[in-house]
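Figure 2 data, in text form.
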Amino acid sequence: MKSISSHFSIFISSFVLLFSFQFTNVIKSIVNDYASKIVNDYAIVVVSSSELKEEELQKQIPEIESISEISSKKILDRLKNEMSSKNLALLQVALPKFYSLKLGSLPDKKRIETIKQKLSSITTISRVETFAKTHEKMFKMFLLLQAMVYIFTFFVACIAVLLILKQIRIWIYEHQRRMAIMALFGASFFMKSAMLYRMTLVDTLLSALCVCVFYDIVPRLPLAQAYAAELDVVLPSFNWLYEGSVLVGASFVFALIAVSIVARKIGRV
């Protein structure tokens, strides 16, 4: 029972550590995906009395990725039954041109104001609508959430590391006599510590596998997908080849470093 308890301590601590690490990656992926979605959905509407050239605007505002003219056909179709064809033709000539400007990235509030001022300074442009407030507030909320997750993860990871190091220290004291005997026969450091490495590696690798399974299954659950749909975000699928390798590799490296640091610090093995 005591052995199971000690292994469980390493397993849980490693699981929390790797879970926190992967959770930050998930949040980062969600925030990046939402930022891309905002950029794709976001557009600046410009009203101009004459045709606008994309190349000329891009020279003044490099953030502009594309310009497309908004057709006034729908407006004219609504008035078709209320106006004569002659007046409708005159209105079509008199109507200004509407353009939708797509940006390559979502700028901050200060940059949006600068873009608006540059567009407004063009003599043919009579009106500029940025529609940035709603998107900006939502994006800032996600960035705040990301920062809070990073801070929380840092403290959780510190606690988990301390618990793992403490348990390894306990294991070293439990096997101190066996290691002392091996030292008398000239055993090397790694030979004396082989059992400690093996126990720590097994526990951390099992925890890494459990974290991989968790992040592979949870995003596919109907409840998780429904909640993500309500927030208009996409839960990233788990990549076993890349993310799984990173988690397993991180657990392996951490186990080796943790045992080596504690064992050498104690200096009796």
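Caption note: The CA atoms of residues 188 and 216 lie 41 Å apart.
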